[in-house]
Every structure is written in C-alpha cells, then in structure tokens.
C-alpha cells in the first residue's frame, strides 16, 4: 500500500506539471484528495489492514496528502503571479511619453498667451509698488453698480448687459446677485479694505450677455488698476498707461486719448490703440475704423471714493480698466478673440515658451 501511495503521488506530480489554469488544478486536487479521490480510496481499504500496517500507512497517507496540498498551493500561486505580471506588462504606463511627445514638437504644455501677458503686466506693476488683488466673480448689485456711481435707474447700466441671478427671496436691490460685468468691482473691495495712499491692479474674468464677434466675447478678461492718494493727477494716469504699453509691445504703438463717459470717473477717457491687425486700414477686429478701444480710464469720481470709505476732500485718484484679451490680440496679431477660449491646441501651442 505504501508503494501504491508513492506511485499515486508520482502520477499526481506528473499531471500537475502540465496544467496551466486554476480550474484544472483544483479538479486534479479533488481527483486525488476528494471524498472519492485516489488517496481516500487507499485509506478506506485500511479497514482490512493489520494494526502494524495501519501504523505505517496512516502517517504516509497524511504525508502525501500534505505534499499534494502544498504542491497545489504552490502551483496556484505561480499561475496567479504569472497572470499579474502579464497584466502589468500589457497595462504598463509609459512614463517617457511626455518627453517623447515633446521632442515630437506637437503637444507639450505651455502657458496660454493671456497668462503670459497677464504675468508680464503683473511684474511691471509689482516693480512699481502696486499690489495685485483678486475679486469674486459673483457680485451683488452694490459692488457692480451702486458703489460705482451707477444707481438703479441710470442709463449706464445698459452699457454692460448683465447676467443676473434671480432669487425670488431677495427683495432688497442691493443684495441682488449677478456675474460681475467688469473688474471695477474690485475698486470697491480694494478701497473698503485699505487706507490711502494705495495702488493696486486686479486682473480677472468678467461676464456680459452680448453677441460675440471678432473683438467681443461673453466671457472675457480685464485688468483693473487704481491709485489713490493726495494730489494724484491726469499726468500720473498717462504715465502709467504709457509705461504698460511700452513694456508690453516693446515698440512704439500709436494710441489716441479721447473723452469717454463712465459714471465712476470724472473726467473719463477712452484710450484706443491703432489696430495692429490691419495697421489702421480697417478690418473685422476694429470694425473697419482702424482703432480699437483698449484702455478706458479716468480720475476716480468723488462719489466712488465716498462709497469706498475715502474722504474725497482729502484724496483723489485714477482708475483704468484694460481689455486684457484685446491687448493679447494686438500683441500677437490674433485676428479673432474667440480663438483665445477655443481650447484648440493648434492655436495654444504657438505660444509655448518651453
Ligand atoms: C469698463 O468695463 C470699465 N469698467 C473700465 C473702466 C475702469 C473705465 C476704470 C474707467 C475707469 P468697457 O465696458 O469699455 O469699460 O470695457 C473695458 C475694456 O474691456 C474695453 O475697452 C475693451 O478693451 C474690453 N471689452 C469690453 N467689452 C468686451 C467684450 N465683449 N469682449 C472683449 N473685450 C471687451
């Protein structure tokens, strides 16, 4: 019987060597160790054996049972490991991909042209001692209009078509919410949080419910600037305007300053740039007039200073609201503002800086 057990084990070892999947291995195990398996059959026949024989065969049968159990476990682990390795090889993440693609000159990352220009302007103003502020996109009527000297019935409200949030529970006008139509809202936050003298810029996204064309978007970007102190004059304003344009374009650009109406400044100006897309000949960007409105500005209205908690008898200041996307268009010769938010990599990748 001992020989029978040895030969069963040998037979089992030969069979398991050729197997490659879990189910076959488990079947083989029950063929040998199952209730009606070969080893169990041998053990059943022990009832006819002598005590001496039992003492020899019992431990041997247990030893072989253990060998078979271990052998099955080892084989199953081996197959599982092989499967995992195969999976890992197939699903391998190629961490060299970025470099490969970059060297292929197609889709490497980079900054959006607006980010590039915005950062340049921020550096220029930081070097002149300005702070950089941020403001909320969702505003109340007070910060977008009232505090900027645009009361409820003022026709200037129509200058900027507004996206309103309709909240039937809000009765008080000042608490009505909207998507800010200009970055001038940050003038109000800035004044409320500071004591003069101060100067800051505030770049950011603004929203207007208007038809888009080559120079108009519904979601676009402005860069507000404000300086408040004693004896600030129009010549300070013009100095800073000229400085931005000189530093950004790094060449002479033709501009014109003309009177402009904004309720929050007095006097107010429109600074137009000669269209760099058509060199002033007329195109869809400048609407055939050769000039593009770029940088409205003026001396802060006393009512605005008052709303910001500043004494207009003692202090005055200037403010401007640069059209950031239009500046980017002029700088890079982009003939349609809608390219800027297209998300088109063929467009964006032209401005890569690394
Ligand atoms: C204003 O928004 C004023 N808050 C600017 C200001 C600030 C004036 C401080 C005086 C003092 P305006 O609506 O003109 O003004 O917009 C400012 C600039 O944003 C424009 O000159 C133009 O360059 C840009 N702009 C206006 N509308 C759009 C638009 N739909 N798409 C892209 N750029 C626009």
TrEMBL record:
PROSITE patterns with a match to the protein in the record: AA_TRNA_LIGASE_II
Cofactor note: Binds 2 magnesium ions per tetramer.
Cofactors named for this entry: Mg(2+)
Cross-referenced InterPro entries: aa-tRNA-synth_II, aa-tRNA-synth_II/BPL/LPL, Phe-tRNA-synth_IIc_asu, Phe-tRNA_ligase_II_N, Phe_tRNA_ligase_alpha1_bac, Phenylalanyl-tRNA_Synthase, tRNA-bd_arm
Keywords, alphabetical: Aminoacyl-tRNA synthetase, ATP-binding, Cytoplasm, Ligase, Magnesium, Metal-binding, Nucleotide-binding, Protein biosynthesis
Subcellular localization: Cytoplasm
Binding residues for Mg(2+): 266
Secretion signal, residue range per the UniProt entry: none
Subunit structure: Tetramer of two alpha and two beta subunits.
Membership in a protein family: Belongs to the class-II aminoacyl-tRNA synthetase family. Phe-tRNA synthetase alpha subunit type 1 subfamily.
HAMAP family found in the cross-reference section: Phe_tRNA_synth_alpha1
Protein name from the UniProt record: Phenylalanine--tRNA ligase alpha subunit
Lineage of the organism: Bacteria, Pseudomonadati, Bdellovibrionota, Bacteriovoracia, Bacteriovoracales
Name of the gene: pheS
């Amino acid at each position: 019987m001992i020989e029978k057990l040895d030969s069963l084990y040998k037979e089992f070892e030969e069979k398991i060597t050729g197997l490659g999947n879990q189910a076959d291995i488990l079947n083989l195990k029950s063929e040998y160790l199952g209730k009606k398996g070969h080893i169990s059959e041998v053990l059943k026949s022990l009832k006819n054996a002598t005590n001496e024989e039992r003492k020899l065969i019992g431990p041997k049968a247990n030893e072989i049972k253990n060998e078979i159990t271990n052998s099955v476990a080892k084989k199953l682990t081996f197959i599982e490991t092989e499967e995992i390795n195969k999976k890992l090889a197939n699903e391998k993440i190629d961490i060299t991909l970025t470099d490969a693609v970059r060297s292929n000159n197609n889709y490497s990352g980079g900054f959006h042209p607006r980010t590039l220009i915005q950062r340049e302007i921020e550096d220029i103003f930081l070097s002149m001692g300005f702070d950089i502020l941020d403001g909320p996109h969702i505003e109340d009527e007070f910060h977008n209009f009232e505090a900027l000297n645009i009361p409820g019935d003022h026709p200037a409200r129509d200058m900027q078509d507004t996206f309103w949030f309709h909240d039937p529970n809000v009765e008080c006008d000042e608490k009505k919410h909207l998507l800010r139509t200009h970055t001038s809202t940050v003038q109000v936050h800035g004044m409320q949080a500071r004591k003069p003298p101060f100067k800051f810029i505030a770049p950011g996204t603004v929203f207007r419910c208007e038809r888009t064309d080559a120079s108009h978007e519904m979601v676009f970007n402005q860069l507000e600037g404000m300086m408040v102190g004693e004896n600030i004059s129009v010549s300070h304003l013009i100095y800073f305007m000229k400085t931005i344009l000189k530093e950004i374009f790094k060449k002479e650009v033709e501009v014109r300053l003309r009177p402009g109406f904004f309720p929050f400044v007095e006097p107010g100006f429109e600074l137009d740039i000669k269209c760099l897309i058509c060199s002033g000949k007329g195109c869809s960007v400048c609407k055939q007039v050769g000039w593009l409105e770029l940088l409205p500005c003026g001396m802060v209205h006393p009512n605005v200073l008052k709303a910001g908690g500043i004494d207009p008898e003692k202090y005055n200041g200037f403010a401007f609201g640069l059209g950031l996307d239009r500046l980017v268009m002029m700088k890079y010769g982009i003939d349609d503002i809608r390219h800027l938010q297209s998300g088109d990599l063929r467009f964006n990748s032209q401005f890569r800086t690394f």
